[in-house]
Design goal:
The chain is an alpha/beta fold. 22% of the residues lie in helices and 20% in strands.
Length: 356
Amino acid sequence: MSALAGPECQFYAPPQRVSRDLSHRRVGGARRTWPAALCRVRPRVPGGPAARTTYPAGVTDRYGSDVLSSDPHRTGAYAHRSTARDEPAELGLVVEDVESGWVGAVTAVEKSGGMHVVVLEDRHGRTRTFPLGAGFWVDGKPVRLVPPARRATPAGPTTAGGRRLTASGSIAVAQDRARVARASRIWVEGRHDAELVERVWGDDLRVEGVVVELLEGVDNLRDVLADFRPGPTRRAGVLVDHLVSGSKETRLVAETLRSLGPRAARHVKVLGHPYVDVWQAVRPERVGLQAWPDVPRGTDIKVGTLAALGWPHADQGDVARGWKRILGTVRSYKDLSPALLGRMEELIDFVTEVPE
């Protein structure tokens, strides 16, 4: 064969893989020498490893650069006896039993006679049971069916059917993404009120898209609602401490609703509990008391409560730590007084009744 003018590469080319436009094609496989223009050649780097033998454009190397690195019959795109992979037998997975040819969807994975078995239901509704392991195909590939991973047991309280409950007793709703907040709002008097609401109703409020804001004292109620401008699609719910007949809180609420006028006031609901402070809405048994102490007039309710409990109460830091201890005893709605539970549920219903 005459020498070629340019660089060359050599390879074994079966007849079916030789391009039709090569004039010197011949019948039968042979070791051929081709012009470098037809080859994808990686030049040798001086001092480096030998250049790889490459193939003409359009010819695929099914064996790779190292024929001993793997078995091409069992791995790769051309494998015709693929190595079986582990496949969890999840419900609904369609598999074929190689030996019998039975094709069906997984309906159950059980333990029977000391071994795991899988129940397959075919398209006619008939079922057959097979032992888990090798001998199945999924999408034309061999697999070893293995038991599916155990699902984590839901944390916290659950229904009899195993569904998770929120701290408020509602059935938990899984959310994949954040909910856009509603225009309606709920206000509470202070930070401790907000933390207690979050502890029990936080999951529910996030699902409903309801934001809870701070009044920083019932004295600010009038200005807050005037700035909010409640309306048909912007309802305001307000939770007030010590809302009892003759209290300062009751008087301020009445004055605020009158100042709004009847048209705006019907889109506002103000409810409250009878306790001077929201601490007392937690069942006293949770902190080892039969009843919350009667704090003398003129003594701060929080400081007096901590003193009665025998807890530190010298400064605001002690008060904050004392509240954290009380809040930490609240596990669910069962640890709160019905006087607070009912009012909060009413407010959530009120602000979520309006269409968005």
